[in-house]
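FW: tagging you since you asked about this chain on Friday. Here's the raw sequence from the shared folder, copied in full. Didn't touch anything.
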Amino acid sequence: MLAVLAIEDNLADFLLLQRHCKRDGLEPDWHRVEQLDQLQDAMRQRKWDLVISDFHVPGMEFIESYKVIRRLDPDLPVILVSGHVGEETAVQLMKLGVRDFLLKDNLNRLVPVITKTLQETSEVRSRREADAKLEAAIIKLKKSEEFQSAILNSAIDAIVTVTEGGLIESCNPAFENTFGFQQATIIGKDLAEVIIPPRYRAAHNEGLARLLRSEQPRVLGKRLEVSALHANGSEFPVEIIITYLPGVGCYTAFIHDISERKQAERNAERERIRLSTILKTASDGIHILDHDGLLVEASEAFLNILGYDDSVIGKLRVADWDAQDQWPVIKQRNDELIATRGRAIFETLHRRRDGSLVCVEISASGIEIEGKGYLYASSRDISDRKHAESEQRLAAASFESSDGMVISDANRTILRVNQAFTTITGYSVAESVGKSTNLLKSGCHDDAFYAAMWNAINREGSWKGEIWNRRKNGEIYPESLTITAVKDASGQTSHYVGTFRDITQRKAVEEQVKELAFFDPLTHLPNRRLLRDRLHQALAASSRHEREGALFFIDLDNFKTINDTQGHDQGDIMLQEVARRLTNSFREADTVARIGGDEFVVVLADLCGNPGDAAAQAKLVGEKVLMVLGEPYLISGNLFRITPSIGITLFGKLQDSIDELMKQADIAMYQAKAAGRNTLRFFDPDLQAAIKARASLETDLRRGIQDDQVLLYYQPQVDGPGRLTGAEALVRWKHPVRGLVSPAEFIPLAEESGLILSLGLRVLEMGCAQVVAWANQPEMAQLSLALNVSAKQFHQADFVEQLLEVVTKTGANPRRLKLELTESMLLENIDEIIAKMARLKEVGFSFSLDDFGTGYSSLSYLKRLPLSQLKIDQSFVRDILNDPNDAAIARTIVGLADSLGLGVIAEGVETLEQRDFLDKAGCHAYQGYFFSRPLPPDAFAEFAWKSLTGQAQPGSTL
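HL: got it, structure written out here
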């Protein structure tokens, strides 16, 4: 039997260790000590398999007890179990030899840790015994002359055995071949005199003396490179490994001639230095590629061309930087050059690290290095050359471009024009050459304009802008003009070159774009874009002049009804009339804008500097708007009435951002809507704070669902005699900062935001997983679980498929799952709901109608639904003893369920009297605080165990 010694002063903690071991099938022979002398006696009296020790034992620190254990039994494994030792201390203790560490509040790992520790201890002991046997066998074998002879004669490397005094005892044939000595001539001689060059012998003898004085010589077992002496007097490099055989009291040296290797290393180093020098000093981008296009070497110039450092060598491939050809084309060219050792010169494009392209000329050759084929290439950046060539081509073609061009002398006499000039101006070459450039003057610009233009040309060398000129037929047109002064070698202006383009069409398009970009096409009021600019100006003016301003957000009440019933064309006419009335109601300095649909925004500027007076002014204006927009509208011979809801926010010295002001006015408008419409409201900061908090909570909830912060609590459901039959799963949200968030706070938010779909799916997954866990425990296998399903979730087109996928994935038994639906779900698409319920019931699901009697109730649909149970809402149970109406409703629900063949369960049962009343009324299934509060999984499991074993008492919750 396993013998375990426990160092623990707390009896309760000792019993807890025993209980956890027994629970997991491990029942060792335990012995507990709590003092140091008890520990010493116990260690001397018997052999222990394992020690489990607390860290803090009064009068006996762990380090002291650990030293005693190590002194008396060095191999005895120790596991530390404590509730107060930090991770850093535990790590240090494990470095001293403690096998593992457990916290007392997490003993579920105790038995696995014990099992692992015992297995590791057994393996260590087995390896130690095997090593000892192997060492003894090796010593014995090495004493064998036959073994030594076989080793010496067959070894490729030279082997020599010397005494502790350094005298040669034996050597093998390879030693004779390596050093040129005959064995018979060197036996008994000093090894240093035979193979150590004279200048190294003193150091060798001193090192040998240190070996003899040292218990653990540092050179033993290590590869050493030294110079050796040949019989012909030459020196050569060797690699030597020295071992000591304590059983026979001698040293053995294994010696390998490394002359060829050293020569190869010297050759490689010379080649490396030569290649490195070439790569560092080459002005061209030298690079070497293998068959797969991998960059195996590159010069600094090449890496600079691409914008990389040498860390990409061995990682980057030619396809990563060649932007002109695909890899198959590149590979075919490279393979041909490598195979034929050919050479090629071509141009291509390289892609730099930053994505930009550079034009290069490549000179590539196939080469062979150590028997393998490579491509040696040199890249030269020819961007400047290409640019110059391009400039030359452009210069030749530019004069006959689509832009008009005119060249004049320094006196502005036209020397040359192109075809585009005559097309745009109407003047032929003959009518233009020899004339002044004033030929094209329109008269739209004064002398000051032209003076400023020519001053800029003479000062800066060029001028660019828009100008009005005149065609030959007298038509004035706009053009984009660039005039450049051309200077001679002395720096004097010799010519002027003018390039121009007719921008008549562009100007017309710009006007159209301006109208489309900044004005609403229906009402011609400023749109949202122009509104933001005007509002920005108003904010700046208010701050500068210390005056208040107001922002009105106007929404037409029930405009959608008119739009839907009378048609969109009639609705558009009404919007145009609203725009006209608003425009006539405000000053020119104010801005009236339409930002979409039936929403209008007004920027009221230059109000009083006092916020109270400014609010009064804004209120008067707002009341006027209510009156003006509330007047009847005559549209296509029909009279219509429509009212506005107006939200107002002020802006002055303490300015918010434009988006914040728009949001404030919008919030105030919705306050006006909530107040009954056809009214105005000013912005309330408290309401905005609540909205922000709600938005923040929504963001946190979305993250919480993704990060598995939601969990399920389980409220037990019992039958008449109080036996546990199942539970209702109630979702909880454990916020990382706020802790448990009330479902009353986040469930409505999830419904409104649509997060109820992902939340509901997560609840289904966790609930099904819990049913599977119960099924694996015989005492809980018969429990059922009720899961709440929201209306939005159930109305999803693929809800049935989604639920069946979860059941299949988790392996849950549908017959142990009950879906709780609310009456509000049944207000629409009743046939679709019944069809879904029927499909799920065929699989095994059952259904309970939650909160029955609190909403829309109809026997016509109730008898059609494939229900299994009605649930009496807690609002009826709460006052069932005091309110005759609640009592009557409860009896009615029980009777209705009985007549329809349905089960019935009451929720919110908190007292014995309520339970007894319901029992007499015929309701024999309950849930509520009288039996238990909702419990987390572990607490529910403990409650279930007590209930199923008869230990739980109604009215006493965990």
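FW: Residues 156 and 174 are 6 Å apart (CA to CA).
HL: agreed, and The radius of gyration is 48 Å.
FW: great, closing this out.
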